[in-house]
Amino acid sequence: MLANIKDITRLTAIRFVVLLGLVSLFADVTYEGARSITGPFLAVLGASGTAVGIVAGLGELLGYGLRLISGAISDRTRQYWAITIAGYTVNLFAVPLMALAGRWEIAAMLMIAERIGKAIRTPARDAMLSHATQATGRGWGFGLHEAMDQVGAVAGPLVVSAVLFLRDDYPAAFAILAIPAVLAIGALLLARWLYPRPRELEIARPQLKPQGLPRAYWLYLAGAALAAAGFADFPLIAFHFEKNGIAPQNLIPVLYAVAMGVDAVAALVFGRLFDRIGLVVLAAVTGLSALFAPLVFLGGLPAAVVGMALWGIGMGAQESILRATVAGMVHADRRGTAYGIFNTGYGVAWFLGSALMGVLYDASLSALIAFSVVVQLGAVGMFWRLRGLR
Questions:
Q1: Residue 184 has what pLDDT?
Q2: The whole model's pTM is what?
Q3: 3 to each of 7, 10, 14, 203, 318, how far by Cα in Å?
Q4: Comparing C-alpha atoms, which of 217, 334, 338 is closest to residue 279?
Q5: Confidence at residue 3, expressed as pLDDT on a 0 to 100 scale
Q6: In angstroms, what CA-CA distances link 158 with 74, 139, 170, 308, 309?
Q7: Full DSSP string of 64-77
Q8: What is the pLDDT of residues 271-299, one digit of tens each?
Q9: What is the rounded (10 degree) CA torsion for 140, 141, 147, 152?
Q10: DSSP 3-state helix, strand, coil percentages of the chain (rounded to 5)?
């Protein structure tokens, strides 16, 4: 009987993860489709490399930094669903509005608004997911969600690429992304109706104190911040491809789709490995993905394809393992706050790294590459220190 109860609980948890994964799939079609062309779009509207780097970095700063507030509010109010729905609404509908942007400054504001919406909804959503992944395995549960997420991240750039191929019109590419935005909100409302209390999916509660965060959490955050600082944002990479003619305009979203496809596979594979052997997996993958920078910024199209695949491997491992580890470190009552703090530190590091790499891009590609590689290798060292964590 106990075995049957566990099987039913696991099946229910998987269904919840899959349903939220479906939300993320449609959402990623929307905003990852947009992000695959925002760099070239800003370039066409007259922005400089420095402006692209700062806008991308500022978007990530707000997109991660505001999670400190939204995470704390979600834990305090327990309104996880309301906060998640509000965040997704802002996150998604900022995208089709870019079709109306005639100046790069307006497009930049909408890019930042999209990131703010993501900041509002992510800690609350991840806290709800963490309850389900207790039954499925943390790494595999978050990896499954990330894999579904990245199916959308592959489809979105391909849709945008097709529109650009057929019409060569950026506003039309942004406008068509209103369709998956509506589908994502519909799937989210269905999840809210079917699973109004996700906390009940976590039957075996971890024996952790709800007060405070452990020392390992802060060391882990330091490693994640180093990884974020050295990881170039795609708008800057796409800006480089456009400016230097590395790839035709309509092929740039395809390169992003390649990275997202690799991301999906990496999330599942490395999430499962994390459940078995711990953070040594993240240390190894971070070292491997650090090689993306010289390939995308110094090579031609073949090197760029390999570099984007390595970039996708790094993203997939980070997106599955980073969230899974936090869930296992922290009491359920503190997870919204823990995810908020973690993402704030991650986002500040991403902003500083992105802004600096934007400046370095205009000054010296060699300096940009050296910074990216060295900082990510520093992250490898931090993750290796914590390699026993699962």
A1: 95
A2: 0.73
A3: 6, 11, 16, 14, 33
A4: 217
A5: 45
A6: 35, 28, 14, 15, 16
A7: HHTHHHHHHHHHHH
A8: 888 888 878 888 888 898 889 889 988 87
A9: 180
A10: 85, 0, 15
* Whether 48 contacts 363, CB under 8 Å: no
Residue ranges, the chain, pLDDT below 70: 1-8, 203-212, 388-390
- Residue 347, burial from CB neighbour count under 10 angstroms (0-12, 13-18, 19+): buried
Give the Cα separation of 207 and 92 in Å (integer): 37
Residue whose token pair is 């060391």:
219
Q: In whole angstroms, give the CA distance from residue 43 to residue 38.
A: 8
CA distances from 127 to 260, 337, 351 (A): 24, 9, 24
Distance CA 255, CA 263 (A): 12
- Answer for the pair 256, 308: CB distance below 8 angstroms, yes or no: yes
Q: Are 124 and 195 in contact (CB under 8 A)?
A: no
| pLDDT reported for residue 117 | 93
Q: Are 72 and 340 in contact (CB under 8 A)?
A: yes
The DSSP letter of residue 79 is -
What CA–CA distance (Å, rounded) separates 311 from 277? 23
Q: Rounded to an integer, what is the distance from CA 311 to the centroid of its chain? A: 12
Nearest to 38 by CA among 89, 114, 152, 122: 114
Residue 310 has a CB neighbour count (10 Å cut-off) of: 20
Q: How many whole angstroms separate alpha carbon 299 and alpha carbon 367?
A: 16
CB-CB contact of 304 with 247 (8 Å): yes
Complete domains list, the chain, with CATH: 2-197+215-385 (1.20.1250.20)
The residue type found at 181 is A
Helix ranges restricted to H, 168-291: 170-175, 178-194, 215-229, 234-243, 252-277, 280-289
- The pLDDT assigned to 5 comes to 42
- Please answer whether residues 195 and 16 qualify as being in contact, where contact means their C-beta atoms are separated by less than 8 angstroms: yes
Q: What is the pLDDT of residue 359?
A: 85
